[in-house]
Design a protein that fits this description.
265 residues; Rossmann fold; 9 helices
Length: 265
């Protein structure tokens, strides 16, 4: 759309309509990926889920199908380039296209830096950074061929700040994801590919169980959240739908903090 043009009322009314779109969610068997998959289906998208464990994706796939949309579950190791390429190929073979990618596959640990085994550091980097890069690269190639698309990486408030809880691997990996997001946004704008990131604060998931059960760490996090509670996976659905929709066509390179005010405090 030229800068002098205005959208029609009908176009504005359908800003968040994802009908006809195909979304791929890596980490689709996790709490965050499953919540976003359901939100996409409610707004009309067909959804492909990818995860290392096939059984983990079944609840999310069932939620998508229950809302009248098509679902595809793909076993994928996001660290392995051939596996990621196969994932994208399967999506295109099944649906004919790929419009939205969400890179929700990720891991975390809590080990003081002085005791961090380099192998554990590398494991965090491989999944969170290499995995995000490979998913973006392979999906991006498909989107370039199609003439555009939307990519949502999953960052973290940890990517902006340190934490006394022993997050040297996780914090560094998420800062890298933020940087990758901005780099891809600038490289791929010419292809009409929007690349943005969601940056959550603490939310309820099996990955955060250890933190939630540690009173000192829990109190530390709660003291930083003006909204007065930790997040639940559904808190991120609206932001993901927005970033995947026509409403976000002129938004790229943004790290969107869905954090209850953590970064503002």
């Amino acid at each position: 759309m030229e800068s002098s043009e205005r959208m029609s009322d009908e176009e504005v009314a359908h800003f968040f309509d994802l009908r006809g779109k195909v979304a791929l969610i890596s980490g689709g068997g996790g709490a965050l990926g499953g919540a976003i998959a359901r939100g996409f289906a409610i707004h009309g998208a067909d959804v492909a889920l990818a995860d290392a464990l096939a059984a983990a994706m079944e609840p999310a796939a069932a939620e998508v199908r229950a809302r009248g949309r098509r679902a595809l579950a793909i076993t994928c190791d996001v660290v392995d380039e051939a596996s990621v390429q196969s994932m994208v190929d399967q999506v295109v073979d099944e649906f004919g296209r790929l419009d939205v990618l969400v890179t929700a596959a990720g891991i975390a640990n809590r080990i003081p830096t002085e005791r961090m085994p380099v192998e554990e550091w590398q494991r965090i980097m491989d999944v969170n950074v290499r995995g995000t890069f490979l998913c973006c690269q392979k999906a991006g190639i498909q989107m370039i061929a199609q003439g555009g698309g939307k990519i949502i990486t999953i960052g973290s408030v940890r990517g902006f700040q340190g934490n006394p809880g022993g997050y040297s691997g996780y914090t560094t990996s998420k800062a890298a994801v933020h940087g990758l997001t901005k780099q891809l946004a600038t490289e791929w704008a010419k292809y009409k590919i929007n690349v943005n990131s969601l940056a959550p604060a603490l939310f309820q998931t099996p990955l955060t169980k250890q933190v939630l059960e540690d009173k000192a760490l829990y109190d530390f996090h709660m003291a930083r959240i003006p909204w007065g509670r930790i997040a639940v996976p559904d808190d991120f659905v609206g932001a993901a739908v927005f970033l995947s929709s026509d409403a976000a066509d002129f938004l790229t390179g943004v790290i969107l903090n869905v954090d209850g005010g953590w970064i503002a405090s």
